[in-house]
Amino acid sequence: MIRIAMPNKGRLAEPSRELIKQAGLTFSHISGRALQAKLGEEFLALFVRANDIPEFVADGAADLGITGRDLVRESGRSLRELLDLEFGRCRLAVAVRDEDTVRSVDDIPDGTPVATSFPVTSEAFFAAKGRRVTLVPVSGAAEIAPHLGVADIIVDLVSTGSTLKTNGLREISTVMESSAVLVGRSGVPEGGEDDAIVRDLTDALESVVCAKNKRYLMANVPRSALDEVRRVLPGVSGPTIIDILNGGNLVAAHAVIGQSEAFAAIARLRQLGATGILLTKIERLSP
Ligand code: AMP
After folding, report:
1. Distance from residue 161's CA to the centre of ligand 1 (Å)
2. Is the dihedral of CA 46, 51, 54, 60 positive or negative?
3. How confident is the model over 259-277, as pLDDT tens digits?
4. Which atom of ligand 1 lies at the shortest distance from residue 67's CA?
5. Closest ligand 1 atom, residue 50 Cα
6. In 159-207, where do the E strands start and end?
7. What confidence tens digit (pLDDT) does each residue in 178-230 have?
8. Scanning 57, 81, 144, 160, which has the fewest C-beta atoms within 10 Å of its C-beta?
C-alpha cells in the first residue's frame, strides 16, 4: 500500500480530505485506528500534524504527503513537489509596527530581533539579503511579539492581512508564497512498481484542482451566429457543436469556460439569440 500522510487537524485538514474524496477515493477507517484509513485498495492515509509531514515523507515513514509548501521549506528536507493543490494559499511575510520607520528589508539594522515560527526559512531569507538579524523563535502568534517588546520585526504567515492590521503591523516584504502541495521523496528512481499508481493519484488530484474554477456551459444558439459563438466560447479546444433533433436553425454549443468569464459569456450569448442556457460545475477536468 502507498502511504499518504495528511494533516490530522488545522486549516489544511478538511480541504485535504475533501480533495481526496473529490478525486474519487473513499476513506474507510480501520477499526480502532482513528489515525489511519484505507483509501481505495491502493492507499493508506496516515493522519498526522501538518508540521511533521515533511519529515515523515523524507524519512520514508510515508510515501507521499499533503502539507503546506511553507512547512516543507521550513523542514529543510529536500522533497519532490508533485502538485500544487491550490488551497491554503498564504504568504510568509516580514512585518513591522505601523509607526516603525523601516520601509524595506534593506532598512533593517544589524542585530534587530525578529520573532518567527519559521526560523530556518527566515534565516535563509535575511542571509540572502545580506541582513544579520537576531532570530527569536516562537511557536505561534508572532504578531504579539512587537507589543511585548520581544522583537521589532516578525516573519509570519499572512493570507488576507487582517490579523496584521488588527495588531497594528505593516507588511514590508514577502519571504515566500505558499499553498498546500502533494510531495514525495526526492531522489527515488523513476519506473518503480508504485510509480504508475502515484501518477494516477496525481492526475486525479490535478483534474479536481483544474476543474475548481471552471464551468461547463451549454446553450442552444442560432446556426447563423456560430462564428461569434466561437469567439465567446473558446473552450478547451473550441466549443462542441451538436445538432438538435427538430432544432430548426438552432444548434447546441457546449464549452468549458472559466468561472469568472461566465457572466459576460452568458450575457453575450443571450444577445446572439441563445436559449436553454445551462451552466454547471465540473467535478474533474483532464485537458
Ligand atoms: P495549521 O496551523 O495546522 O492550521 O496549518 C497551518 C498551515 O496552513 C500553514 O503552514 C500554511 O501552509 C497554511 N495557511 C494558509 N493560510 C494561513 C494563514 N493565514 N495563517 C496560517 N497558516 C495558513
Report:
1. 13
2. negative
3. 999 999 999 999 999 999 9
4. 12
5. 3
6. 169-178, 180-185
7. 999 999 998 776 777 788 999 999 999 999 999 999 999 999 999 999 999 99
8. 160
Question: What is the C-alpha to C-alpha distance for residues 105 and 220, in angstroms, rounded to an integer?
Answer: 57
Q: Rounded distance, CA 238 to CA 255, Å?
A: 7
Cell numbers representing residue 131 in the block:
541582513
Spatial separation of the C-alpha atoms in residues 71 and 85, rounded to whole Å:
14
How far is 123 from 129, CA to CA, in rounded Å? 10
Q: Give the pLDDT band (50/70/90) at residue 131.
A: very high
CA atoms within 13 A on the CB side of 172: 20
C-beta separation of 67 from 10 below 8 A: no
DSSP letter string over 2-58? Answer: EEEEEESSSTTHHHHHHHHHHTT--EEEETTEEEEEEETTTEEEEEE-GGGHHHHHH
Q: In 3-state terms, what secondary structure has residue 247?
A: coil
Distance 179 CA to ligand 1 centre (A): 9
pTM value?
Answer: 0.92
Q: Quote the ligand 1 centre to 200 CA distance (angstroms).
A: 28
Nearest to 117 by CA among 88, 145, 81, 84: 145
